Amino acid sequence: xxxxxxxxxxxxxxxxxxxxxxxxxxxxxxxxxxxxxxxxxxxxxxxxxxxxxxxxxxxxxxxxxxxxxxxxxxxxxxxxxxxxxxxxxxxxxxxxxxxxxxxxxxxxxxxxxxxxxxxxxxxxxxxxxxxxxxxxxxxxxxxxxxxxxxxxxxxxxxxxxxxxxxxxxxxxxxxxxxxxxxxxxxxxxxxxxxxxxx
Amino acid sequence: xxxxxxxxxxxxxxxxxxxxxxxxxxxxxxxxxxxxxxxxxxxxxxxxxxxxxxxxxxxxxxxxxxxxxxxxxxxxxxxxxxxxxxxxxxxxxxxxxxxxxxxxxxxxxxxxxxxxxxxxxxxxxxxxxxxxxxx
Lengths: 198, 135
Hints:
The complex is a heterodimer. By secondary structure, chain A is an alpha+beta fold. Chain A contains three helices and nine strands, in the order H-E-E-E-E-H-E-E-E-E-H-E.
């Protein structure tokens, strides 16, 4: 009898915890970088994300190769074998959303929230905070949107310039300054979540 | 002097045309590319589960044909169809985002073959720019 009760208790706890996790396989990340020649914009529509409504934990994870550049030439280079991202193939964000206790996915509504966490990209990690909006659809699902600016650190610009030096012939003297590359990258996230059932 | 000016003007026009061509190149497509690998969905998922780094070096960025049972159809944030193939694993499958919307999508439970660019693994093995080969 004890065993039956124990199994019942654990399955209840498991179901309760599991039922609070919302999930998407098809989150969208849009990035935009400005420069003097042509703005660089890219989209990734294959981002997975989990939101735990009980604890407020949020996680985004995506693959660098899933970015599609609006500029066709850049997209072709990025999708060629010349660009190898196998050392750091993924980016991820782990954090918490404040104010999720007000959100009821079974009622239509819109909620301003704050997100704090850490972004892991290449070999760097960055503490990031942003504001966002959660829109509930009244059918047990919701969408989340957030826009923030990510500043490229000075040492990352050096890495980029070193890469340009290595790849281009010596006679071509180009750097990120030549193109007027803005160090601020504008990032937009949006995703539609459903209860996790697989 | 006239010849020099004509030469410079010619160079400028060529550079301008090259710039316009580069700016207007369409995005990469794999539709007419031959597949580097043809593999079963279970095998592909298993390769990533067993050794992700090794599978990355083999399949990432490559065009592959994957055969498997269709278990879910959804749409991404831009409305592109997203097919999920069974991998034999409870939590992960093969996620295939189609490059364009076909007139008729296959049905759940059907065995299909999809060609796409392999980008790595998250929870599912992720393929992008996909086309349905057989259904």
